[in-house]
Amino acid sequence: MNVPLLDLQPQLLSLRPRILAAVTRVIDSTGYILGREVVELEEKISSYSGASHGIGVSSGTDALLASLMSLEIGSGDLVLTTPYTFFATMGAVLRTGAKPIFVDVEPGSLNINPEEMAEALAKDRKTGGRIKAIIPVHLFGQCADMQRINTLAEEYGIPVIEDAAQAIGAEFPCVENGTVTWRRAGGMGLCGCFSFFPSKNLGGIGDGGMITTSDAAFANLLRSNRNHGAEPKYFHSRVGGNFRLDAIQAAVLAVKLEYLEQWHAARRNNAEQYRRLFQEAGLIDDPVVLPTESYAKVAGAEQHNHHIYNQFVILVPQRDALREYLLKHAIGCEIYYPLCLHQQDCLHDRDYHQQSYPVAQQAAGTSLALPIYPELDQEQLACVVETIRCFYHGS
Questions:
Q1: In the chain, what are the helix, strand and coil shares in percent, each to the nearest 5?
Q2: Other CB atoms within 10 Å distance of the CB of residue 260
Q3: How far apart are CA 341 and CA 334, in angstroms?
Q4: Is the domain defined by 260-393 classed in CATH 3.90.1150.10?
Q5: Of the CATH numbers 2.40.30.10, 2.40.50.140, 3.40.640.10, 3.30.420.40, which one belongs to the domain with range 9-102+112-257?
Q6: 294-298: which pairs have CB atoms within 8 A and are 24 or more residues apart?
Q7: Could you say which of 74, 204, 360, 368 would form a disulfide bridge with 84 (CB–CB 3.0 to 4.6 Å)?
Q8: Ranges of each domain in the chain
């Protein structure tokens, strides 16, 4: 049986008439840069994420870069983040001239470890206070511990940029005065950065991104910086970039946004089916370690929509051999991520390669993403698990 890692065709077929109508509407309008379609999507995404403002940009990478630029992060500054994520998180920092400083991730969620963050922030304060921003990544569709992260950020007076590229719609329980409020990714820090790359839960038909914030002044600065720093047009008090979201992407994304919660629910259901099937196959913990939903049972909210499963990642021994076996048997899979950021060759002339982050490095050596997209059926999910069982225990 063929089970692709991702198949966008079923989604496209069901929405094709609406998508074509939306694209045609933009083409006929001749309003291709920003405009009404982008403004409407900005309002919808910001409202969905629990923020006051949305700023459409050209990609998730540019969302991070524009946010750092708007904070005037530059040479001599440090940005605290995770070593276990997609390269864009670090790449955006390096492009500003700043340096990333890493702390390890938590064993369960693989999100940044707040206790190690606390140690890094305390050490930084004693040595001059060069950390100017914190970028937690909501990895694979599950929020980092934003309650603890925001507490640390407030204590040290450092802004938080949420890298929510994989996590639109993911939720986290924040406790205030004994009351639990579930808040969405992108609505908890100074700003949140989203990607609409086609493989995301909310994906466009090309590149696109969004920044959300509830700080009106910061929102205005972001809008200026996405358009070469112009304010007003042709007058430049700062150097920005060309980070605009185009109207065709906005129109398509607005169509898809209506179905996002339905797709999240299907992914969560698929994740539950994987857990059941792995349990029935006798694979749980030996050899398959499953991802955790670290905060899913706070205050009786067990069924709340927390993890949106942009990826479903397992940790396994003999990962590379298993991957080859699955691909040989037409089961799609991918490694997220085979190398930690501090180990990347672009940092070879710095001292990063001497650093060690054991949990992140172990994850890089054992993680494997399985198909999780909404249209998978029960037979396909069972086939994935049975193929893994055969690899470890024979047929």
A1: 45, 15, 40
A2: 16
A3: 18
A4: yes
A5: 3.40.640.10
A6: 294/106, 294/108, 294/109, 294/142, 294/145, 295/143, 295/145, 295/172, 295/173, 298/173, 298/175, 298/180
A7: 360
A8: 9-102+112-257, 260-393
